[in-house]
Amino acid sequence: MPLEDIPRTKTGIQGLDAALNGGIPTGNAVLISGGAGTGKSTFCLQFAVNGATLFGEKTLYISTEQTREELYRQAYGFNWRVDDLEARNLLKIVFFDVTNGNSFMEKLDAIIMDFKPRRIIIDSLTTLTDSLLVSGMTEDKGFSMVQIAETVNPMPRTDQIMTKHILYTLFKAIKKYKVTSVFTSELPEDEHSLSADGVSEFVADGVLMLHFLGMGGVDSRSMRVRKMRYTDHFKDIMQYEMNQNGFVVYADSDIKV
Question: Taking Cα atoms as reference points, which of 168, 179, 177, 234 lies closest to residue 204?
C-alpha cells in the first residue's frame, strides 16, 4: 500500500497531525517520552478525549501511576468530561496496581476483548516494565531470568535484554488487535537516550519527544517527532503549550513533510 493511502489515527491536535502528514499511521505503537512536567499524561487524556468526541473511537486508558479519581481530577481541569465518555462506553480508564501480582497480560487481553477499543494508552510504560521485571513476567513466556543471568555478563546488559523481551511481548500482544497505541516513558533531564529504559524507542513504531525548560519565570516547551514508521513527518523542533484546552502545537502554516 502506498504510504499516502495508509489509514491514519488523528490525535485531534491540529499542529501535530499536520506534522505527522495527517496523523499516526493506524496500528502504530508510539512512545511519548519526556521529563517531569512535560505533559505526557495530559497528552494521553487529550488523545483519548479527542478520539471519542471528534472521531467516535473508543479508547482504553491503562494507568499504572494515577488512579481513576486522579485522572478524573486532571481531566476536569481542561473541562474534559471523561465520566460522560465512560458512561457512553467511549472511554475506559483502568488503574493497574503494579504492586499487586503479575497478571497484567491476562487482564489486558480480557479487557481488550470485552471493550474492543480502537486506541490504547499505557501510562506509564516505565512503571509497568519495572514492575514486570521484578515480578518475573518473562519466566511465564519460556524465557527464564535465571538462565539469562547465568549466560549474560555484565548485569546491566542482562536487565536490558529482559526489558527488551518484555517490551516485545507487550507490543506484540497489543499489535495483534490492530489498534493504535500510545505509551509514556519517563526521561531524566540529563538522559541521552530516548526513553528511561533505553530500549523501547527501538521497539516502538514512533517516538515523540517532549521537552520543558523553565527559566526566569518563562516556560518553554518543545516537541519533536524523532521517529514514525510508515509515514513521512516533520523533522524540526515544534513549540507547544498547555492551555485551558490542552495541548496546542505551533508549527509553520506551510509545514512540509
Answer: 168
Closest to 40 in 3D by CA, of 68, 19, 71:
71
- With beta carbons less than 8 A apart as the criterion, state whether 182 and 32 touch: yes
Q: 3-state class of 161 per DSSP? A: helix
In the chain, what is the straight-line distance between the N-terminal and C-terminal CA atoms, in Å?
A: 19
How confident is the chain (257 residues) per 10-residue block, as mean pLDDT?
82 95 97 93 98 98 95 97 98 89 83 97 90 61 38 51 85 95 84 70 94 74 95 94 93 54
Q: Which amino acid is at 142?
A: G
Distance CA 213, CA 114 (A): 42
Dig out the grid coordinates for 203 from the structure. 521497539
Distance (Å, rounded) from C-alpha 18 to C-alpha 253?
A: 9
- The closest of 200, 235, 229, 207 to 30, measured between CA atoms, is 207
Residue 132's pLDDT is what?
77
Residue 206, all three cell numbers: 514512533
Q: Before 124, cis peptide (omega within 30)? A: yes
Q: What is the Cα–Cα distance from 203 to 229, expressed in whole angstroms? A: 11
The rounded distance, in Å, linking the Cα atoms of 31 and 203 is: 9
Whether the bond into 117 is cis, omega within 30 of 0: no
Burial class for 90, CB neighbours closer than 10 Å (0-12, 13-18, 19+): buried
Coil, helix or strand at residue 44: helix
